[in-house]
Amino acid sequence: MRPSKRQAGDLRPVSFQRAFSHHAEGSCLIKFGNTHVLCTASLEDRVPPWLKGQGRGWITAEYGMLPRATSDRTRREATTGHQSGRSQEIQRLIGRSLRAVVDLQALGERQIMVDCDVLQADGGTRTASITGAWVALHDCFQWMRARDMLRGEPMKDNVAAISCGIYKGEAVLDLDYPEDSDAEADANFVFTGKGQIVEIQATAEKGAFSEERMAELTALAKKGIAELVNLQKLTVL
């Protein structure tokens, strides 16, 4: 039995709250059980210097955790003078995932900065960030469309992410912290709404695992992401 009493293929309760931020062009508070992430999409009338004059835009991301997002207080990264390697890796993953489903030409020479701030962590913060960031980005595009700022349809597909792992010998979907901290293997999957792969990160924690086990995790991830994409679509109707 999983600590949360869920079946192997069950997601935690997932909810999206759009327009959570009054000021951002797009925003979404996403909850995966006790993991809560605020995602905001901010439009900037500029692009990175290396993109100037190319007629296309850019989407990038920043990720961070509040000091009491976890059971013990952690120092703000700003006070240490640098971001952790983990934060940098996650925000790059978020940016890559969003760009995979966006036509950057449609933005013109503009940048959208997506901030993912973890208010409360209970495992799966990167996957929740990606899934919620898509909704925030969608709403930013709606804001731009209402002002005739787009050259076409920028959003080519949905994108969502989920974690899977091997916990006490069983392949399970959507690891919470007690499972993640004791898993024999864990993986993060990012797929588009059409089921195409954006990124897979898989790690053996307590010994190598087989190709057959990886296939089990992938099948669970496809099921979970299909459910998340359906929720995204219902949210932005």
TrEMBL record:
Enzyme Commission number: 2.7.7.56
Domain of life: Bacteria
The keyword Magnesium appears for this protein: no
GO molecular function, one term: tRNA binding
Residues of the Exoribonuclease phosphorolytic domain: 11-140, 158-224
Reactions catalysed: tRNA(n+1) + phosphate = tRNA(n) + a ribonucleoside 5'-diphosphate
Alphabetical list of SUPFAM superfamilies matching this protein: Ribonuclease PH domain 2-like, Ribosomal protein S5 domain 2-like
Region (Disordered): 69-89
A biological process term (GO) from this entry: tRNA processing
Basic and acidic residues compositional bias, start-end: 70-79
Enzyme category, top tier: transferase
Signal peptide: none
Keyword annotations from UniProtKB, A to Z: Nucleotidyltransferase, RNA-binding, rRNA processing, Transferase, tRNA processing, tRNA-binding
Polar residues bias locations: 80-89
Binding-site residues for phosphate, renumbered to this chain: R86, G124, T125, R126
Pfam families: RNase_PH (PF01138), RNase_PH_C (PF03725)
Function: Phosphorolytic 3'-5' exoribonuclease that plays an important role in tRNA 3'-end maturation. Removes nucleotide residues following the 3'-CCA terminus of tRNAs; can also add nucleotides to the ends of RNA molecules by using nucleoside diphosphates as substrates, but this may not be physiologically important. Probably plays a role in initiation of 16S rRNA degradation (leading to ribosome degradation) during starvation.
Subunit structure: Homohexameric ring arranged as a trimer of dimers.
Family of the protein in this entry: Belongs to the RNase PH family.
NCBIfam families recorded: RNasePH
PANTHER family: EXOSOME COMPLEX COMPONENT, EXOSOME COMPLEX COMPONENT RRP41
Protein name: Ribonuclease PH
Organism for this UniProt entry: Rhodomicrobium udaipurense
Lineage: Bacteria, Pseudomonadati, Pseudomonadota, Alphaproteobacteria, Hyphomicrobiales
Gene name in the database record: rph
